[in-house]
């Protein structure tokens, strides 16, 4: 009955839920056709766990669970004592315990092994080939062949046509024919240091062992054996510093050689070498700090420049504030605080003429026009134009004629500066024109052509700080309306009509013809003391009281191209040479530093600035050193005047 | 055996001889001089009997040899001509006594030169910052000097002058970069025809001499000419501030060759004995050049010992290898070209810069 009626619930010990379900489903299908006992269907039976019934039968009546409560103890006893325990299964549908029959147990075993459930089924029945290699008389089918079986395929033709069209349209690119030449793999590419593969070589071969030499021999030549001192020295050295890690020993014969004591040590070290050796090449960048410094030419290559002091012009008794050379280069004029102006012959340092003036001389300037022989001397609030009478007589007399041939215009305009012609004793001494200014004049400078003269009267408040005089017309103009700061120095552009005005922190470039400000150069200095313009006209240097010399390239920018800090103390004066690429700066530390400053004609190359020589010679008096610096007009010589009352020539 | 020029005069009419200078050996004694006079008298008058004479030299009886007498009495025959920054030139005797002052320039005298220095009257030249060169005649007996010519033409201070070996021409170099050649022969003064017409001018020219213009002007230097000299009667050599030494042909005025250096040349000197040019520059070296080299510049030897600019060099007139140099470091050095490392002697007696050096005729 159990095979007919029972829905066997398989209690498989140790098997999981899935397998149980599978077999349950299997057995149910084989049995359910006959007898449906429980009508709940395929539901998890846990739902009826708490109920006394386990389902409903066909008539709708509850099917009650068998009245037996097996508790743990009973279960345990059952497990231990019941010999059929292993083949007892609780039917899920009814709740009853069913003992599996032998056939059922056999079935379960067969299923577990993966065989077919049915005993009588033979899976190794002989196969009857439907299609075999034996050629039969009659074919399988008598259907005649289609035409498409022996003509070229139409489908393929269509596909090929589509492909050809696609290739012709360029949507598909045909495959390139393979190269028939054999491609070889370069075995040694990694060894070649030039090829890419070789350079990428990260493989670091293991360090090679040193081959044994004479020191390892059991009977080395006597020179390889260490003497007593050498042995002591070897023992005192650290093991890492030693050249040989062992002492060479001498034995009479091979039999006397003992076992090698350092064997394990050596092998250990070899292992260390092998696995501690670096695995990757680290590309370290070895930058020499010297390579970063730009290579400047050596001063030797930049000759000629002044190197030594040659002459000292002695004669003044107080500090010499200003010097100037004649355009021919034969004479030098110097003005000093002892109220005299002296004229010197350059080649012999002889003072040829001394002119007394009425106050401490603040500035002297020789007219750069070679056909006019005039010197402008400024003291207190007066500027005197003096004819020194040196040099060519004709030029001297021509200058006098020029001055005396002036005709007064009809209407006399009101001028801030008074022009008077010198007479009497002044005239004998050489004074020709006297200009009286409203304030003390500090600097005088001539225009390149020799007709215009600019004077600086520094005063923080007024707008009359700079005046430009025209000697031929005896006219004075104040080019500026507004006061922009304390004017330190001015200079004319050598070629074009520009005017440079240096105040304490800025240098303003004005266009005199257009009468407007062209540029404002910002020096990084706190207080500009002096300024000089390059004879080519595109560069300006400024010296300042905070030891800086700023070189401006007007084409480059309004900030300094280079700032040089060679001096230790305040700079007093800077100057350019007219022909040679040199510039010099004199400062309160008593030295004159000459630098090579080459300006190139092509606009791409920046000026080359190389400091070339430090010229010492002046003595520092009252904390003041060199007060004025100027170059000889034709030779590579520099003159410097100092607070010690001397003018020195360096050649 | 040096010779001395002497003239004899006496108040005794019986023993008068010609008033011409005679060349007497310096080692002559009274007897020799006596013999000379006797011979002269015999030649002039017949029947002259030998007389022993006594000689007075400058009021002193001649007792010893003439040379010794002269030494003891300090009678010199060598005169030193110097120009100075006080606008005058001076003639000195060997002992250092200023015999004559030549004043006439209006500005500093830069260079002086003897044109000829024999007998009674000598000609000398002075150049100055006032762009003129003056030719003077000096009568050594009467100790008078007279300006013969004033050579105008330069446009700048005349720094150097040199007389040619034939003593007929001289060349001057100046700050106007030119060289000018002038005639050194003094022309006789014009007649007094001009006197009436232009008395004022005559007075001026009397003081300064007749104006003279150059025979030739040579240009070619780019800067001031610092030193000029004649190598022979047709070749001139000039050194200048444009770092070159140029050789010129005096006949045509053309440039023959150029030697280029690095620094301003202060002075040059030529020695016909060894045919070398020595130059002093604004560095401390004295350089020897071969003027015949065609290459441009070949410094044969460079003598370095001075500490300042070398302002004067001069070859010895008698010695082939000796030259003397003066410099701004107050030292005068005597060099032998065979020992180029160091000078033979250092003469440090000046207290200030040495501007010019020269040799005497005998090489002293």
Characteristic terms for this protein:
heterodimer; A: 651 residues; five-stranded antiparallel sheet; four-stranded antiparallel sheet; 33 strands; disordered N terminus; B: 364 residues; mainly beta; five-stranded mixed sheet
Q: Biggest sheet of chain B: strands side by side, in what order?
A: 8-9-10-11-15
Q: Provide the gyration radius of chain A in Å.
A: 59 Å
Q: How far from one another are the termini of chain A?
A: 140 Å
Q: Count the strands of chain B?
A: 28
Structural class of chain B: mainly beta
> How many helices of chain A in DSSP terms?
10
- Major beta sheet summary of chain A: 5 strands, antiparallel
Oligomeric description of these chains: heterodimer
Radius of gyration of chain B: 23 Å
Number of strands of chain A: 33
Molecular shape of chain A: elongated
GO biological process, one term (chain A): maturation of LSU-rRNA from tricistronic rRNA transcript (SSU-rRNA, 5.8S rRNA, LSU-rRNA)
Function (chain A): Component of the PeBoW complex, which is required for maturation of 28S and 5.8S ribosomal RNAs and formation of the 60S ribosome.
WD repeats (chain A): 313-354, 619-651
Keywords (chain A): Nucleus, Repeat, Ribosome biogenesis, rRNA processing, WD repeat
Structural features, described:
- The complex is a heterodimer of chains A (about 650) and B (about 375).
- Chain A has about 650 residues and is an alpha+beta fold.
- Chain A is about 15% helix and about 25% strand.
- Chain B is mainly β and about 375 residues long.
- The longest helix of chain B is centred in the N-terminal third of the chain and has 15 residues, at about 30-45.
- Chain B is globular and about 75 Å long.
- At the A-B interface, loops of A face loops of B.
């Amino acid at each position: 009955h159990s095979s007919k009626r029972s829905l066997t619930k398989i209690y498989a010990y140790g098997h999981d839920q899935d397998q149980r379900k599978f077999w349950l489903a299997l057995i149910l299908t084989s049995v359910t056709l006959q007898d449906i006992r429980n009508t709940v269907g395929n539901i998890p039976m846990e739902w009826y766990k708490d109920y006394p019934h386990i389902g409903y039968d066909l008539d709708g009546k509850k099917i009650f669970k068998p009245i037996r409560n097996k508790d743990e103890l009973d279960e345990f006893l059952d497990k231990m004592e019941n010999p059929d325990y292993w083949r007892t299964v609780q039917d899920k549908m009814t709740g009853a315990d069913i003992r599996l029959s032998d056939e059922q147990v056999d079935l379960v075993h067969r299923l577990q092994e993966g065989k077919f459930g049915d005993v009588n089924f033979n899976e190794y029945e002989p196969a009857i080939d439907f299609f075999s290699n034996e050629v039969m008389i009659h074919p399988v089918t008598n259907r005649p062949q289609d035409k498409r079986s022996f003509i070229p395929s139409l489908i393929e033709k269509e596909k090929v046509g589509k492909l050809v069209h696609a290739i012709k349209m360029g949507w598909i690119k045909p495959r390139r024919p393979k190269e028939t030449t054999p491609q070889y793999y370069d075995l040694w590419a990694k060894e070649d240091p030039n090829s890419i593969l070789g350079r990428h070589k990260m493989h670091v071969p293991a360090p090679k062992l040193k081959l044994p030499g004479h020191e390892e021999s059991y009977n080395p030549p006597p020179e390889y054996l260490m003497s007593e001192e050498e042995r002591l020295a070897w023992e005192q050295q650290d093991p890492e510093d030693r050249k040989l890690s062992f002492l060479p020993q001498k034995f009479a014969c091979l039999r006397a050689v003992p076992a090698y004591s350092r064997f394990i040590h050596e092998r250990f070290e070899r292992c260390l070498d092998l696995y501690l050796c670096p695995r990757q090449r680290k590309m370290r960048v070895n930058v020499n700090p010297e390579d970063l410094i730009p290579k400047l030419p050596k001063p030797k290559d930049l000759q000629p420049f002044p190197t030594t002091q040659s002459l000292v012009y002695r004669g003044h008794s107080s500090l010499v504030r200003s010097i100037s050379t004649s355009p021919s280069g034969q004479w030098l004029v110097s003005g000093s605080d002892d109220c005299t102006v002296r004229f010197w012959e350059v080649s012999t340092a002889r003072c040829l003429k001394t002119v007394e003036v009425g106050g401490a001389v603040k500035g002297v300037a020789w007219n750069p026009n070679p056909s006019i022989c005039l010197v402008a001397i400024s003291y207190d609030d007066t500027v005197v134009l003096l004819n020194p009478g040196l040099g060519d007589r004709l030029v001297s007399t021509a200058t006098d004629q020029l001055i005396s041939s002036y005709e007064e215009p009809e209407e006399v305009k009101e001028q801030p500066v008074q022009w008077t012609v010198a007479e009497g004793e002044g005239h004998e001494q050489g004074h020709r024109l006297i200009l009286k200014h409203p304030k003390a004049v500090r600097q005088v400078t001539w225009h390149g052509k020799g007709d215009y003269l600019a004077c600086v009267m520094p005063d923080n408040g007024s707008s009359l700080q700079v005046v430009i005089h025209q000697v031929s017309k005896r006219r004075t103009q104040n080019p500026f309306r507004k006061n922009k700061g304390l004017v330190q120095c001015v200079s004319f552009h050598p070629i074009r009509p520009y005017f440079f005005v240096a105040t304490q922190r800025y240098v303003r470039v004005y266009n005199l013809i257009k009468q407007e400000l062209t540029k404002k150069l910002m020096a990084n200095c706190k207080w500009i003391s002096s300024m000089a313009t390059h004879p080519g006209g595109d560069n300006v240097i400024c010296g300042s009281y905070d030891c800086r010399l700023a070189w401006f390239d007007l084409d480059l920018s309004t900030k300094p191209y280079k700032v040089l800090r060679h001096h230790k103390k305040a700079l007093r004066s800077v100057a350019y040479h007219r022909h040679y690429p040199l510039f010099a700066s004199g400062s309160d530390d008593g030295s004159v530093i000459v630098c090579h400053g080459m300006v190139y004609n092509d606009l791409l190359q920046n000026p080359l600035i190389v400091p070339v020589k430090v010229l010492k010679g002046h003595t520092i008096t009252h904390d003041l050193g060199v007060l004025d610096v100027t170059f000889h007009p034709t030779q590579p010589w520099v003159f410097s005047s100092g607070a010690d009352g001397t003018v020195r020539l360096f050649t | 055996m040096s010779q001395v020029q002497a003239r004899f005069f006496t108040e005794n009419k019986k023993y008068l001889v010609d008033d011409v200078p005679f060349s007497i050996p310096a080692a002559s004694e009274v007897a020799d001089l006596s013999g000379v006079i006797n011979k002269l008298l015999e030649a002039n008058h017949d029947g002259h009997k030998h007389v022993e004479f006594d000689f007075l030299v400058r009021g002193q009886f001649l007792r010893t040899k003439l040379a010794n007498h002269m030494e003891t009495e300090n009678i010199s025959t060598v005169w030193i001509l110097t120009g100075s920054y006080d606008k005058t030139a001076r003639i000195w005797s060997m002992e250092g006594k200023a015999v004559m002052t030549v004043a006439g320039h209006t500005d500093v005298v830069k260079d002086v030169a003897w044109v000829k220095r024999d007998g009674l009257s000598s000609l000398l030249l002075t150049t100055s910052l006032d762009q003129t060169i003056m030719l003077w005649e000096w009568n050594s007996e009467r100790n008078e000097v007279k300006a013969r010519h004033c050579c105008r033409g330069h446009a700048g201070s005349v720094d150097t002058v040199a007389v040619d070996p034939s003593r007929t021409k001289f060349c001057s170099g100046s700050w106007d970069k030119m060289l000018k050649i002038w005639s050194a022969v003094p022309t006789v003064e014009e007649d007094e025809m001009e006197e009436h017409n232009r008395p004022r001018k005559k007075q001026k020219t009397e003081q300064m001499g007749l104006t003279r213009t150059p025979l030739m002007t040579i240009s070619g230097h780019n800067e001031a000419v610092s030193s000029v000299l004649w190598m022979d009667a047709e070749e001139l050599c000039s050194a200048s501030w444009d770092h070159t030494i140029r050789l010129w042909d005096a006949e045509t005025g053309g440039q023959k060759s150029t030697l280029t250096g690095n620094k301003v040349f202060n002075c040059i000197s030529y020695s016909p004995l060894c045919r070398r040019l020595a130059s002093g520059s604004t560095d401390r070296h004295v350089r020897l050049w071969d003027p015949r080299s065609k290459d441009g510049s070949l410094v044969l030897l460079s003598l370095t010992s001075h500490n300042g600019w070398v302002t004067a060099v001069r070859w010895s007139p008698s010695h082939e290898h000796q030259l003397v140099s003066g410099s701004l470091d107050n030292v005068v050095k005597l060099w032998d070209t065979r020992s180029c490392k160091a000078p033979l002697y250092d003469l440090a007696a000046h207290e200030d810069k040495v501007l010019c050096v020269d040799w005497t005729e005998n090489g002293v």
